[in-house]
Amino acid sequence: MNTASPLSPTPSLVQHKTPIMKPAKHRHTFLALASLTALAAGGLPLSAQTVTTVLNDTFADGERDTQNLPGSAKWMSSVSASLTVSGETLAQSGAGRTDLAYFTANGSPVNLAVDESLSLTFDVSFASVSNSTAGFRVGLFSPGTRVTADDFSAAFSDGNFGYIGAVNLAATSNNILRVYERPSGTANANLVGGSISGYTLVGTAGGGTFKTFAAGETYTAIYTLTRTAESSMSITLSYTGIFAGDAVSSTQTVTRSDSSGLTTSFDTLAFYNHTGTGYTLDNIQLDYTSTIPEPSTVALLLGGVALTAGVLIRRKRAA
Questions:
Q1: Which pLDDT belongs to residue 266?
Q2: Does any domain span residue 12?
Q3: Domain that holds residue 194
């Protein structure tokens, strides 16, 4: 028989009594942490994107020698006599020439963070076309020692790493578009020209179906670099126009991803025609899409941090 008094406390309950936290005491801390959690979970947009045109050269000024960004760039060629401005277009009359310009002030490159991009658009027409794996090339590169005038040498060995979009203008099979990388530490003295074997193919094969460009036809090209992650760059190249034998316009495109030794800083734009008798360029526009925090997100984030800090300070004083 149990002889304990009915009013005596149960020993096990006395020894294992668990304190209960009062919700009100920690309510403000909880609300602050909940706000931050909502942000991380996508409760509010973390950022917005803004587009800045860093280059928009239409050659309406009739010359190529003035650097006045974004409306005009100083265009330089490895062979001075072959590059002219004619009819408000930039005309290259020869083959095997590198033509380049800088789209930022010296020492102030565009640096791509995650979800940011550089997108180049231009119109191009070819005087003639030929079957060459990477016959026409366009490249975006990181800073190096800048050239200041025409007739520069091909020695680009102290920087200028980046990506090259190449097209076979008269292919006899598919995969007319390819993406190459000029990686850090490259031994290739050329920037975008020379043998394509001096560059690293990004991905396996190229993209685009069997098409031949028509001489004299104008095509619109779009070349975009997008940093999709800390260690991943997506490169897309496309050409739109009426190809030989076609009655209507179509688009050829390729997208490749680089995840090894990314180049993320850019200030140099270059073109190169490996074969043929020249080309013309017009409406060269380069847009930088940057990511900025949403004002509402910043306000809530700062408010949550301030509230949490205030609670912790009061608790420390009370202790």
A1: 98
A2: no
A3: 47-293
